[in-house]
Protein: Aminotransferase class I/classII large domain-containing protein
Amino acid sequence: MTGSSKPWSLIDLLKGWPNPFLLPAVQIKIASSIALSNADISTPGLLYGPDDGYGPLRAHIADWLTQFYQPLSRISAERICITGGASQNLACILQVFSDPLFTRNVWMVSPTYFHACRIFEDSGFHGRLRSVPEDEEGVDVEYLRKALHQSEMKAQAEGNTQPTLKPTRPWSKIYRHLIYAVPTFSNPSSRIMSLQRREELVQVAREYDACIITDDVYDMLQWPTDKTAVQPSREHAYLPRLVDIDRTLEGGAEREGSDGFGNAVSNGSFSKIAGPGCRTGWLEGTQKFAWGTSQVGSSKSGGAPSQLTSTFVSNLIESGELQRHIFKTLQPTYARRYQSMITAIEEHLLPLGVKLPQTTRDVVGGYFIWLSLPAPMQAEEVAVRAQQEENLIIAPGPIFAVYGDEKAVDLERKVRVCFSWEEEAMLAEGIQRLAQVIGRMQRNQRQQEEATPSPREGSSFLVERHR
Ligand SMILES: Cc1ncc(COP(=O)(O)O)c(C=O)c1O
Structure:
C-alpha cells in the first residue's frame, strides 16, 4: 500500500528482539521442573551462590564453548564467570577494571550498540567516549592506533599516571583504555571483523594497556549466504573471538612478563539463544580476569546474579536441548527470515541505489541488515516518512552514533532493519514499503531539480553556489 492512507498493519523492523514463536518455553519448562524437583539442584539454586556463579553451569559452558569455537586448547571452567547478561556484566567489568579518572577513553567501534554508551556514561565516562570507524574489514585499527597515541600523550602531559579513585586490590587492575566492539554479526552494522583486524586489534590493545570488551552475543546465529545451501546451519564458529586470539597470539594473554589479566574479554549471553527474560550470561577471559569480575561488590554480596536461572540453563546445555534449539530451530528459521528479507532488498531496494555491506562473504548471521541509502537521502527523514506514510518502523543510522562523538563517523545515510522480531510473512512487505518511501523521495527530488534552474554545465551545484 502506498500514498497518504496508512496501511492497516504496523511493520516493526526496528525492534531487536526474538519473535515470541522462537522462545524455547517447553524446553525451559522441562529444565526448570527437573531443577526444582531435585533438592540437590533447587537448594543451591534458591540460596545465595558462589561469586563466580553456579559451578555446573560454568563447567557446561566451558565444554560447549570449546566445541563451538574449537580453540587450540580446551576452555576451562576457571575462565568462565556467570553474569546477568552482557549489558549487566559490562557494568560489572567497568566497576572492577576501570577508573573514570585514570582510564583515559572508551573506544567504540562506530556504528555502535547504543545501550553500551549509557552503561559507559553511568560509569563516569561521559564526554570520553570516542568513535572508531569501520570499513569493509571491520574496525579501522590504524585510526585507533593514532587516536590512542594522542590520548596517551595528553594523559602523560596531564600527569595522569596512577589510578586515584579505586583502591589497589589483588584481584583487579585498572586499564588505561577500554575498547568496545561487536566483532561478529555486529549490531547494528551486521559486519564481521576479519581475522587480520582481530589480531591487529589485540596487538594494539597490548601496546596501550587496553581492555577489549566484545559482546559475542550473535556468534551462534549463523548460516550460509547461499540460498540453495542444503544445510542452513553451522555448528562451529566462523572466526575465533578476540578473547581466543588474545589467549594464543604471540605467547598468549598469560605470557611471561604480562600481568595475566589479558587484553580481551568476551561477553556471552543466553538472551539471543534462549530468551532475553533469562537475563543470564557468561564472561570468558583469563582466569585472573574472570575471578576479578566475580569480586565486584554486587556479586560479593550473595554471589553471581541469575543463580536460579543458571540451574535451568545448566540443564538445557547438559541435555543438549539448547544446542538442538540453536542448530535445528534458530539457525534455519533465522536463515529463512534473512533470505526473505534479503531477496526483497535485492529486488526492490538495490535498483534504487541502496547498498549492502560485505557482499562477498559466504556466512551471514545475527538479527540485522545494514543498508546505505543513496545520496542525498537522510536516514532520519526516511524513517519519519516510513512511519507516517507506510506504517513502517526502521532504525535510522544516527541513533547508533557514539554518545558525545557523533560527528566522527557519518551515519546520516544508514539504516538498520531487523529480521528477528516481525512476523516472517511481513518481512518482505516491510522492505517493499521502504522501497515505496525511497522511490517517492527520489521522484520528488527529481521534480524539484527539474523545477530549479540547473547550475552551469560542468560545475557542481556547490561550486556554483560559492562563486
Ligand atoms: C551487541 C549487544 N550486546 C548486548 C545486548 C544485550 O544483551 P543482554 O540481554 O545479555 O544484556 C544486545 C541486545 O540487543 C546486543 O545487541
Q: What stands out?
A: Confidence is low (pLDDT under 50) at residues 456-467.
